[in-house]
Protein backbone atom coordinates (compact mmCIF):
# COMPACT_ATOMS: atom_id res chain seq x y z
CA UNK A 1 0.00 0.00 0.00
CA UNK A 2 1.33 3.45 -0.86
CA UNK A 3 1.15 5.42 2.34
CA UNK A 4 4.32 7.15 3.41
CA UNK A 5 4.46 10.90 2.86
CA UNK A 6 8.11 11.16 3.93
CA UNK A 7 10.69 8.53 3.00
CA UNK A 8 14.39 8.24 3.70
CA UNK A 9 16.28 5.91 1.38
CA UNK A 10 19.76 4.86 2.52
CA UNK A 11 22.00 1.86 1.94
CA UNK A 12 21.58 0.82 5.60
CA UNK A 13 18.62 0.85 7.93
CA UNK A 14 19.48 2.53 11.24
CA UNK A 15 19.24 -0.76 13.16
CA UNK A 16 21.30 -3.84 13.93
CA UNK A 17 19.78 -7.21 14.48
CA UNK A 18 20.34 -8.93 17.81
CA UNK A 19 19.66 -12.63 18.36
CA UNK A 20 18.69 -13.50 21.94
CA UNK A 21 19.50 -16.72 23.86
CA UNK A 22 16.40 -18.46 22.48
CA UNK A 23 17.42 -17.62 18.92
CA UNK A 24 14.77 -14.89 18.42
CA UNK A 25 15.77 -11.91 16.35
CA UNK A 26 15.13 -8.41 17.69
CA UNK A 27 16.35 -5.03 16.50
CA UNK A 28 18.50 -2.50 18.24
CA UNK A 29 18.78 1.00 16.90
CA UNK A 30 22.29 1.75 15.73
CA UNK A 31 23.43 5.14 16.95
CA UNK A 32 24.01 7.83 14.37
CA UNK A 33 23.46 11.50 13.74
CA UNK A 34 21.36 10.93 10.67
CA UNK A 35 18.65 8.95 12.42
CA UNK A 36 18.65 11.34 15.38
CA UNK A 37 18.13 14.28 13.05
CA UNK A 38 15.48 12.63 10.94
CA UNK A 39 13.52 10.85 13.63
CA UNK A 40 11.22 13.80 14.46
CA UNK A 41 10.54 14.41 10.77
CA UNK A 42 9.87 10.74 10.18
CA UNK A 43 7.50 10.61 13.14
CA UNK A 44 5.66 13.82 12.26
CA UNK A 45 5.06 12.62 8.72
CA UNK A 46 4.33 8.90 9.17
CA UNK A 47 7.71 8.35 7.65
CA UNK A 48 9.38 5.22 6.36
CA UNK A 49 13.08 4.41 6.16
CA UNK A 50 14.10 2.09 3.32
CA UNK A 51 17.45 0.28 3.47
CA UNK A 52 19.37 -2.93 3.94
CA UNK A 53 18.99 -4.57 7.35
CA UNK A 54 22.52 -5.96 7.42
CA UNK A 55 21.93 -9.62 6.58
CA UNK A 56 22.14 -11.24 3.21
CA UNK A 57 19.28 -13.32 1.87
CA UNK A 58 15.55 -12.78 2.17
CA UNK A 59 14.67 -9.42 3.71
CA UNK A 60 12.69 -9.34 6.96
CA UNK A 61 9.11 -8.02 6.82
CA UNK A 62 8.70 -4.27 7.39
CA UNK A 63 8.69 -3.45 11.10
CA UNK A 64 8.54 -0.55 13.49
CA UNK A 65 11.35 0.69 15.70
CA UNK A 66 10.87 3.69 17.99
CA UNK A 67 7.86 4.84 16.00
CA UNK A 68 9.53 4.71 12.58
CA UNK A 69 8.52 2.23 9.90
CA UNK A 70 11.54 0.38 8.59
CA UNK A 71 11.34 -1.29 5.21
CA UNK A 72 14.18 -3.74 4.58
CA UNK A 73 15.62 -4.28 1.10
CA UNK A 74 16.91 -7.69 0.12
CA UNK A 75 20.58 -7.99 -0.84
CA UNK A 76 22.37 -11.22 -1.73
CA UNK A 77 25.95 -12.03 -0.69
CA UNK A 78 26.92 -11.56 -4.33
CA UNK A 79 25.34 -8.09 -4.40
CA UNK A 80 27.17 -7.09 -1.24
CA UNK A 81 30.41 -8.15 -2.90
CA UNK A 82 29.70 -6.35 -6.18
CA UNK A 83 27.34 -3.43 -5.53
CA UNK A 84 28.62 -2.51 -2.06
CA UNK A 85 32.22 -3.65 -1.61
CA UNK A 86 32.91 -3.44 -5.35
CA UNK A 87 31.35 -0.51 -7.19
CA UNK A 88 30.53 1.61 -4.13
CA UNK A 89 33.65 1.07 -2.07
CA UNK A 90 36.39 0.09 -4.52
CA UNK A 91 35.32 2.24 -7.53
CA UNK A 92 33.36 5.30 -6.35
CA UNK A 93 34.85 5.77 -2.86
CA UNK A 94 38.51 6.14 -3.91
CA UNK A 95 37.65 8.15 -7.04
CA UNK A 96 35.50 10.65 -5.16
CA UNK A 97 38.24 11.03 -2.54
CA UNK A 98 40.69 12.48 -5.05
CA UNK A 99 41.77 8.97 -6.11
CA UNK A 100 44.05 8.81 -3.06
CA UNK A 101 44.11 5.06 -3.72
CA UNK A 102 43.83 3.52 -7.16
CA UNK A 103 40.18 2.89 -8.00
CA UNK A 104 39.18 -0.45 -9.46
CA UNK A 105 36.49 -0.80 -12.13
CA UNK A 106 34.77 -4.07 -13.02
CA UNK A 107 31.83 -4.42 -15.37
CA UNK A 108 30.08 -6.98 -13.16
CA UNK A 109 30.18 -4.50 -10.26
CA UNK A 110 28.40 -1.86 -12.31
CA UNK A 111 25.69 -4.34 -13.34
CA UNK A 112 25.03 -5.16 -9.71
CA UNK A 113 25.07 -1.45 -8.71
CA UNK A 114 22.46 -0.77 -11.40
CA UNK A 115 20.27 -3.69 -10.33
CA UNK A 116 20.38 -2.84 -6.64
CA UNK A 117 19.63 0.84 -7.34
CA UNK A 118 16.65 -0.29 -9.44
CA UNK A 119 15.38 -2.39 -6.53
CA UNK A 120 15.61 0.53 -4.11
CA UNK A 121 13.75 2.76 -6.61
CA UNK A 122 11.01 0.16 -7.17
CA UNK A 123 10.39 -0.41 -3.48
CA UNK A 124 10.32 3.33 -2.84
CA UNK A 125 7.97 3.97 -5.79
CA UNK A 126 5.53 1.42 -4.36
CA UNK A 127 5.71 2.85 -0.84
CA UNK A 128 5.41 6.59 -1.46
CA UNK A 129 2.08 8.36 -1.02
CA UNK A 130 1.05 10.76 -3.80
CA UNK A 131 3.26 13.86 -3.71
CA UNK A 132 5.48 12.39 -0.98
CA UNK A 133 8.92 13.76 -0.13
CA UNK A 134 11.79 11.30 -0.62
CA UNK A 135 15.29 11.93 0.69
CA UNK A 136 17.96 9.62 -0.80
CA UNK A 137 21.33 9.31 0.94
CA UNK A 138 24.82 8.88 -0.43
CA UNK A 139 27.09 7.41 -3.06
CA UNK A 140 25.69 3.88 -3.02
CA UNK A 141 22.38 5.13 -4.46
CA UNK A 142 23.24 7.75 -7.07
CA UNK A 143 21.01 6.23 -9.75
CA UNK A 144 17.91 6.16 -7.56
CA UNK A 145 16.77 9.80 -8.06
CA UNK A 146 16.27 9.40 -11.84
CA UNK A 147 14.93 5.85 -11.55
CA UNK A 148 12.39 7.08 -9.03
CA UNK A 149 11.37 10.13 -11.04
CA UNK A 150 10.74 7.93 -14.07
CA UNK A 151 8.35 5.79 -12.01
CA UNK A 152 6.86 8.53 -9.87
CA UNK A 153 7.07 12.03 -11.37
CA UNK A 154 4.71 13.31 -8.66
CA UNK A 155 7.33 12.96 -5.89
CA UNK A 156 9.59 15.64 -4.44
CA UNK A 157 13.05 14.09 -4.51
CA UNK A 158 16.15 15.16 -2.57
CA UNK A 159 19.61 13.58 -2.64
CA UNK A 160 22.49 14.18 -0.23
CA UNK A 161 26.07 13.10 -0.87
CA UNK A 162 28.02 12.53 2.36
CA UNK A 163 31.42 12.25 0.66
CA UNK A 164 33.25 14.76 -1.57
CA UNK A 165 32.22 15.25 -5.19
CA UNK A 166 35.30 15.24 -7.41
CA UNK A 167 36.43 17.79 -9.98
CA UNK A 168 35.37 17.22 -13.59
CA UNK A 169 38.62 15.61 -14.77
CA UNK A 170 38.45 12.93 -12.07
CA UNK A 171 34.75 12.21 -12.48
CA UNK A 172 35.36 11.76 -16.22
CA UNK A 173 37.35 8.57 -15.47
CA UNK A 174 34.23 6.84 -14.24
CA UNK A 175 32.76 4.23 -16.55
CA UNK A 176 29.01 4.96 -16.81
CA UNK A 177 29.67 8.56 -15.80
CA UNK A 178 26.72 9.71 -17.90
CA UNK A 179 24.26 7.38 -16.16
CA UNK A 180 25.51 8.50 -12.76
CA UNK A 181 25.23 12.18 -13.58
CA UNK A 182 21.76 11.70 -15.05
CA UNK A 183 20.84 9.59 -12.05
CA UNK A 184 21.64 12.46 -9.68
CA UNK A 185 19.85 14.97 -11.89
CA UNK A 186 16.63 13.06 -11.26
CA UNK A 187 16.48 14.89 -7.91
CA UNK A 188 14.95 18.33 -7.34
CA UNK A 189 17.70 19.11 -4.86
CA UNK A 190 21.20 17.65 -4.84
CA UNK A 191 22.99 18.44 -1.57
CA UNK A 192 26.72 18.36 -0.88
CA UNK A 193 28.91 18.95 2.16
CA UNK A 194 30.81 21.91 0.72
CA UNK A 195 30.15 24.64 -1.87
CA UNK A 196 33.07 23.46 -4.01
CA UNK A 197 31.45 20.05 -4.44
CA UNK A 198 28.22 21.67 -5.66
CA UNK A 199 30.28 23.76 -8.08
CA UNK A 200 32.06 20.64 -9.37
CA UNK A 201 28.69 19.03 -9.96
CA UNK A 202 27.26 22.03 -11.81
CA UNK A 203 30.42 22.34 -13.92
CA UNK A 204 30.02 18.69 -14.83
CA UNK A 205 26.48 19.22 -16.13
CA UNK A 206 27.93 21.79 -18.51
CA UNK A 207 30.89 19.63 -19.49
CA UNK A 208 29.11 16.32 -20.01
CA UNK A 209 25.61 17.40 -21.00
CA UNK A 210 26.09 20.93 -22.34
CA UNK A 211 23.68 22.39 -19.79
CA UNK A 212 23.92 26.00 -18.67
CA UNK A 213 23.85 26.16 -14.90
CA UNK A 214 22.85 29.52 -13.43
CA UNK A 215 23.81 30.17 -9.83
CA UNK A 216 22.82 27.08 -7.90
CA UNK A 217 20.36 25.89 -10.54
CA UNK A 218 20.41 23.92 -13.74
CA UNK A 219 17.43 23.30 -16.02
CA UNK A 220 16.87 19.66 -16.94
CA UNK A 221 13.92 18.89 -19.28
CA UNK A 222 12.04 22.04 -18.17
CA UNK A 223 12.64 21.15 -14.54
CA UNK A 224 14.84 23.15 -12.19
CA UNK A 225 17.44 21.16 -10.25
CA UNK A 226 19.20 22.92 -7.39
CA UNK A 227 22.71 21.93 -6.29
CA UNK A 228 23.91 23.42 -3.04
CA UNK A 229 25.97 22.88 0.10
CA UNK A 230 24.45 21.66 3.38
CA UNK A 231 27.32 20.89 5.78
CA UNK A 232 26.23 18.05 8.04
CA UNK A 233 26.70 18.27 11.79
CA UNK A 234 26.15 16.38 15.03
CA UNK A 235 23.60 16.32 17.83
CA UNK A 236 25.72 18.77 19.80
CA UNK A 237 23.52 18.83 22.91
CA UNK A 238 23.59 15.03 23.15
CA UNK A 239 27.41 14.92 22.96
CA UNK A 240 27.68 17.62 25.62
CA UNK A 241 25.27 15.72 27.79
CA UNK A 242 27.20 12.44 27.62
CA UNK A 243 30.50 14.25 28.19
CA UNK A 244 29.00 15.86 31.29
CA UNK A 245 27.99 12.58 32.92
CA UNK A 246 29.88 11.43 35.98
CA UNK A 247 30.62 8.19 34.18
CA UNK A 248 32.42 9.88 31.27
CA UNK A 249 34.24 12.41 33.45
CA UNK A 250 35.45 9.75 35.83
CA UNK A 251 36.54 7.50 33.00
CA UNK A 252 38.49 10.36 31.38
CA UNK A 253 40.56 10.74 34.55
CA UNK A 254 41.05 7.00 34.72
CA UNK A 255 42.30 6.90 31.13
CA UNK A 256 44.91 9.56 31.83
CA UNK A 257 46.05 7.63 34.87
CA UNK A 258 46.25 4.41 32.86
CA UNK A 259 48.37 6.23 30.29
CA UNK A 260 50.83 7.17 33.03
CA UNK A 261 49.67 10.81 33.57
CA UNK A 262 51.40 12.20 30.49
CA UNK A 263 51.62 15.93 29.79
CA UNK A 264 50.15 15.51 26.35
CA UNK A 265 47.76 12.89 25.02
CA UNK A 266 47.33 12.99 21.25
CA UNK A 267 44.20 11.16 20.11
CA UNK A 268 43.03 9.83 16.74
CA UNK A 269 39.60 8.23 16.22
CA UNK A 270 38.85 7.00 12.74
CA UNK A 271 37.32 4.22 10.77
CA UNK A 272 40.32 2.32 9.52
CA UNK A 273 40.15 3.94 6.08
CA UNK A 274 42.94 5.14 3.78
CA UNK A 275 41.23 8.54 3.36
CA UNK A 276 41.65 9.31 7.05
CA UNK A 277 45.42 9.87 6.89
CA UNK A 278 46.30 7.50 9.76
CA UNK A 279 49.57 6.39 8.18
CA UNK A 280 50.84 9.94 7.62
CA UNK A 281 49.78 10.92 11.13
CA UNK A 282 51.82 8.06 12.60
CA UNK A 283 54.76 9.00 10.44
CA UNK A 284 54.58 12.59 11.69
CA UNK A 285 54.47 11.36 15.29
CA UNK A 286 57.45 9.06 14.72
CA UNK A 287 59.51 11.89 13.21
CA UNK A 288 58.60 14.16 16.12
CA UNK A 289 59.95 11.50 18.49
CA UNK A 290 63.04 11.06 16.33
CA UNK A 291 63.61 14.84 16.31
CA UNK A 292 63.21 14.93 20.10
CA UNK A 293 60.38 17.48 19.81
CA UNK A 294 58.12 14.96 21.57
CA UNK A 295 59.29 12.46 24.18
CA UNK A 296 57.67 9.31 25.59
CA UNK A 297 56.18 9.08 28.23
CA UNK A 298 55.53 12.83 28.50
CA UNK A 299 53.70 12.67 25.19
CA UNK A 300 51.78 9.60 24.04
CA UNK A 301 49.39 8.87 21.25
CA UNK A 302 46.13 6.90 21.36
CA UNK A 303 44.84 5.74 18.00
CA UNK A 304 41.38 4.17 17.82
CA UNK A 305 40.97 2.56 14.41
CA UNK A 306 37.46 1.18 14.10
CA UNK A 307 37.28 -1.97 11.95
CA UNK A 308 35.84 -1.14 8.53
CA UNK A 309 35.20 -2.82 5.12
CA UNK A 310 37.50 -5.65 6.06
CA UNK A 311 36.71 -7.72 2.98
CA UNK A 312 37.92 -5.03 0.60
CA UNK A 313 41.56 -5.66 -0.38
CA UNK A 314 42.76 -2.06 0.01
CA UNK A 315 41.52 -2.03 3.61
CA UNK A 316 43.39 -5.22 4.48
CA UNK A 317 46.57 -3.76 3.05
CA UNK A 318 46.05 -0.54 5.02
CA UNK A 319 45.57 -2.43 8.27
CA UNK A 320 48.87 -4.24 7.78
CA UNK A 321 50.70 -1.01 7.04
CA UNK A 322 49.25 0.85 10.03
CA UNK A 323 49.98 -2.01 12.41
CA UNK A 324 53.53 -2.34 11.12
CA UNK A 325 54.13 1.37 11.69
CA UNK A 326 52.66 1.23 15.22
CA UNK A 327 54.95 -1.73 15.99
CA UNK A 328 57.92 0.13 14.60
CA UNK A 329 57.27 3.25 16.68
CA UNK A 330 56.69 1.27 19.86
CA UNK A 331 59.77 -0.84 19.19
CA UNK A 332 61.93 2.24 18.89
CA UNK A 333 60.40 4.63 21.40
CA UNK A 334 58.32 2.61 23.87
CA UNK A 335 59.45 1.46 27.29
CA UNK A 336 58.31 -1.51 29.33
CA UNK A 337 54.71 -0.77 30.23
CA UNK A 338 54.84 2.58 28.39
CA UNK A 339 54.12 2.32 24.69
CA UNK A 340 54.42 5.44 22.54
CA UNK A 341 51.27 4.60 20.58
CA UNK A 342 48.27 2.90 22.15
CA UNK A 343 46.58 1.31 19.17
CA UNK A 344 43.02 0.02 19.48
CA UNK A 345 41.44 -1.80 16.55
CA UNK A 346 38.02 -1.85 18.22
CA UNK A 347 34.73 0.01 18.57
CA UNK A 348 33.78 1.67 21.83
CA UNK A 349 30.51 2.78 23.34
CA UNK A 350 29.68 6.47 23.50
CA UNK A 351 30.77 6.90 27.13
CA UNK A 352 34.22 5.50 26.42
CA UNK A 353 34.42 7.68 23.32
CA UNK A 354 33.35 10.76 25.29
CA UNK A 355 35.95 9.91 27.95
CA UNK A 356 38.68 9.54 25.33
CA UNK A 357 37.70 12.88 23.78
CA UNK A 358 37.90 14.53 27.19
CA UNK A 359 41.19 12.89 28.07
CA UNK A 360 42.86 14.13 24.88
CA UNK A 361 44.93 17.32 24.88
CA UNK A 362 45.36 17.24 21.14
CA UNK A 363 42.86 15.67 18.77
CA UNK A 364 44.37 14.66 15.45
CA UNK A 365 41.85 14.74 12.60
CA UNK A 366 44.09 14.69 9.57
CA UNK A 367 42.31 13.06 6.63
CA UNK A 368 43.79 13.28 3.16
CA UNK A 369 40.26 13.98 1.98
CA UNK A 370 36.94 13.80 3.88
CA UNK A 371 33.40 14.91 3.05
CA UNK A 372 32.90 16.42 6.51
CA UNK A 373 34.39 14.40 9.43
CA UNK A 374 32.09 14.19 12.40
CA UNK A 375 34.83 13.08 14.80
CA UNK A 376 36.25 16.62 14.71
CA UNK A 377 32.85 18.04 15.68
CA UNK A 378 32.26 15.38 18.34
CA UNK A 379 35.60 16.20 19.96
CA UNK A 380 34.75 19.89 20.15
CA UNK A 381 31.28 19.22 21.59
CA UNK A 382 32.77 16.87 24.21
CA UNK A 383 35.40 19.40 25.35
CA UNK A 384 33.25 20.67 28.19
CA UNK A 385 36.24 22.22 29.92
CA UNK A 386 37.57 23.83 26.73
CA UNK A 387 41.15 22.77 27.37
CA UNK A 388 41.92 20.66 24.32
CA UNK A 389 43.24 21.56 20.89
CA UNK A 390 41.98 20.32 17.53
CA UNK A 391 44.48 19.71 14.73
CA UNK A 392 42.36 19.55 11.60
CA UNK A 393 43.12 18.83 7.97
CA UNK A 394 42.23 21.54 5.47
CA UNK A 395 40.96 18.68 3.31
CA UNK A 396 38.17 17.73 5.69
CA UNK A 397 34.84 19.42 5.02
CA UNK A 398 34.80 20.26 8.74
CA UNK A 399 37.61 22.79 8.17
CA UNK A 400 35.01 25.06 6.59
CA UNK A 401 33.05 25.12 9.86
CA UNK A 402 35.68 24.79 12.59
CA UNK A 403 37.74 27.82 11.65
CA UNK A 404 39.51 28.09 15.01
CA UNK A 405 41.13 24.67 14.73
CA UNK A 406 44.86 24.34 14.10
CA UNK A 407 44.54 23.77 10.36
CA UNK A 408 47.16 21.63 8.62
CA UNK A 409 47.94 20.29 5.17
CA UNK A 410 48.34 16.53 5.71
CA UNK A 411 50.18 16.18 2.39
CA UNK A 412 52.96 18.33 3.84
CA UNK A 413 54.67 16.37 6.62
CA UNK A 414 56.52 19.41 7.94
CA UNK A 415 53.29 21.36 8.25
CA UNK A 416 51.61 18.41 9.94
CA UNK A 417 54.43 18.05 12.48
CA UNK A 418 54.47 21.78 13.19
CA UNK A 419 50.69 21.69 13.62
CA UNK A 420 50.97 19.03 16.34
CA UNK A 421 53.69 20.92 18.18
CA UNK A 422 51.94 24.29 17.92
CA UNK A 423 48.68 22.76 19.19
CA UNK A 424 50.41 20.93 22.05
CA UNK A 425 52.33 24.02 23.10
CA UNK A 426 49.62 26.66 22.70
CA UNK A 427 48.63 28.45 25.89
CA UNK A 428 45.60 27.35 27.91
CA UNK A 429 44.08 30.73 27.17
CA UNK A 430 44.50 30.36 23.42
CA UNK A 431 43.07 26.85 23.52
CA UNK A 432 40.10 27.99 25.52
CA UNK A 433 39.30 30.86 23.16
CA UNK A 434 39.43 28.61 20.13
CA UNK A 435 37.42 25.82 21.72
CA UNK A 436 34.72 28.16 23.01
CA UNK A 437 34.23 29.72 19.61
CA UNK A 438 33.93 26.31 17.95
CA UNK A 439 31.54 24.99 20.58
CA UNK A 440 29.35 28.05 20.19
CA UNK A 441 29.26 27.46 16.45
CA UNK A 442 28.30 23.80 16.85
CA UNK A 443 25.53 24.55 19.32
CA UNK A 444 23.86 26.64 16.67
CA UNK A 445 24.83 24.56 13.66
CA UNK A 446 23.76 21.12 14.84
CA UNK A 447 22.37 18.19 12.89
CA UNK A 448 18.75 19.32 13.33
CA UNK A 449 19.58 22.58 11.66
CA UNK A 450 21.25 20.65 8.85
CA UNK A 451 18.18 18.50 8.23
CA UNK A 452 15.86 21.47 8.51
CA UNK A 453 17.78 23.56 6.01
CA UNK A 454 17.92 20.70 3.51
CA UNK A 455 14.23 19.92 3.81
CA UNK A 456 13.23 23.57 3.67
CA UNK A 457 15.24 23.92 0.46
CA UNK A 458 13.43 20.85 -0.83
CA UNK A 459 10.13 22.58 -0.18
CA UNK A 460 8.97 20.76 2.94
CA UNK A 461 6.94 23.23 5.03
CA UNK A 462 8.58 24.18 8.36
CA UNK A 463 5.65 22.66 10.22
CA UNK A 464 6.21 19.14 8.86
CA UNK A 465 9.94 19.54 9.18
CA UNK A 466 9.31 19.72 12.95
CA UNK A 467 12.50 19.28 14.84
CA UNK A 468 13.91 18.07 18.08
CA UNK A 469 11.98 20.35 20.34
CA UNK A 470 14.26 19.15 23.15
CA UNK A 471 17.76 20.06 22.09
CA UNK A 472 18.11 23.59 20.69
CA UNK A 473 17.40 25.73 23.79
CA UNK A 474 20.33 24.16 25.64
CA UNK A 475 22.31 25.06 22.58
CA UNK A 476 22.28 28.79 22.96
CA UNK A 477 22.31 28.84 26.72
CA UNK A 478 25.41 28.54 28.93
CA UNK A 479 28.64 29.26 27.18
CA UNK A 480 27.61 31.90 24.62
CA UNK A 481 29.04 34.99 26.24
C1 LIG B 1 30.95 9.68 6.06
C2 LIG B 1 31.92 10.68 5.40
C3 LIG B 1 30.96 12.49 6.83
C4 LIG B 1 34.14 5.86 15.17
N1 LIG B 1 34.68 4.97 16.03
C5 LIG B 1 33.74 4.72 16.96
C6 LIG B 1 32.59 5.47 16.66
N2 LIG B 1 32.87 6.15 15.55
C7 LIG B 1 31.92 7.08 14.92
C8 LIG B 1 32.34 8.50 15.18
C9 LIG B 1 31.62 9.24 14.06
C10 LIG B 1 31.55 8.19 12.96
O1 LIG B 1 31.87 6.94 13.53
C11 LIG B 1 32.53 8.47 11.85
O2 LIG B 1 32.07 9.58 11.13
P1 LIG B 1 33.01 10.41 10.16
O3 LIG B 1 32.29 11.65 9.75
O4 LIG B 1 34.29 10.72 10.87
O5 LIG B 1 33.38 9.47 8.95
P2 LIG B 1 32.70 8.42 7.88
O6 LIG B 1 32.31 7.16 8.54
O7 LIG B 1 33.74 8.28 6.82
O8 LIG B 1 31.39 9.15 7.31
C12 LIG B 1 32.26 11.81 6.36
C13 LIG B 1 29.95 11.46 7.33
O9 LIG B 1 29.73 10.43 6.36
C14 LIG B 1 28.60 12.12 7.63
O10 LIG B 1 28.11 12.80 6.53
O11 LIG B 1 31.29 13.36 7.89
O12 LIG B 1 33.08 12.75 5.72
O13 LIG B 1 33.11 10.02 4.98
O14 LIG B 1 30.31 9.57 14.44
O15 LIG B 1 31.96 8.88 16.47
N3 LIG B 1 31.47 5.46 17.40
C15 LIG B 1 31.46 4.66 18.50
N4 LIG B 1 32.54 3.89 18.83
C16 LIG B 1 33.68 3.89 18.11
O16 LIG B 1 34.62 3.18 18.44
N5 LIG B 1 30.36 4.64 19.27
Q: What features would you describe in this structure?
A:
The N and C termini lie far apart (52 Å). The C terminus is likely disordered. The strands form 3 sheets. A 9-stranded mixed beta sheet has the order 5-6-4-1-7-8-9-11-10, with helices on both faces. Strands 14-13-12-15-16-17 form a 6-stranded parallel beta sheet, with helices on both faces. Strands 2-3 form a two-stranded antiparallel sheet. By secondary structure, the chain is α/β, with parallel strands linked by helices. The radius of gyration is 23 Å and the shape is globular. It has 2 domains: 226 residues, Rossmann fold (3-Layer(aba) Sandwich), CATH 3.40.50; 208 residues, Glycogen Phosphorylase B (Rossmann fold, 3-Layer(aba) Sandwich), CATH 3.40.50. Bound molecules: GDP-alpha-D-glucose (GDG).
Set out the fold topology.
Blueprint (H helix, E strand, L loop, with lengths): L3 E9 L2 E5 L5 E5 L3 H12 L3 E5 L10 E3 L2 E6 L3 H20 L10 H21 E10 L6 H8 L4 E5 L7 H4 L5 H8 L4 E4 L2 H15 L7 E4 L2 E7 L6 H9 L1 H13 L5 E8 L6 H13 L8 E8 L6 H21 L7 E4 L5 H10 L2 E4 L8 H9 L6 E5 L12 E3 L4 H13 L2 H17 L2 H12 L13 H5 L5
Parallel strand pairs: 1-4, 1-7, 4-6, 7-8, 8-9, 9-11, 12-13, 12-15, 13-14, 15-16, 16-17
Antiparallel strand pairs: 2-3, 5-6, 10-11
GDP-alpha-D-glucose binds next to strand 12, strand 13, helix 12 and helix 13.
Amino acid sequence: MSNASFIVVANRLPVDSVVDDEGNRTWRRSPGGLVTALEPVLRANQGTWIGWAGQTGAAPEPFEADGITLLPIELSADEIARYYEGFSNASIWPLYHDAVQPRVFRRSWWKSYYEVNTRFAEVCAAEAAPGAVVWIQDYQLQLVPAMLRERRPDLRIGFFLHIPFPPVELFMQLPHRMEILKGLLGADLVGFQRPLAAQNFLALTRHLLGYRPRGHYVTVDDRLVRADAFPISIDTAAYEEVANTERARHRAKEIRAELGEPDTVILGVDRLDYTKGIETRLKAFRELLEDGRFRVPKTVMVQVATPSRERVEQYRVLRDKVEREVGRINGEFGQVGLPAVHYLHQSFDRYELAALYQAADVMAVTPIRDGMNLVAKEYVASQIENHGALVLSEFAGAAGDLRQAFLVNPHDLTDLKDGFVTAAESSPDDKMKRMRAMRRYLRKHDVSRWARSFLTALGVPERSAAYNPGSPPAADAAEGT
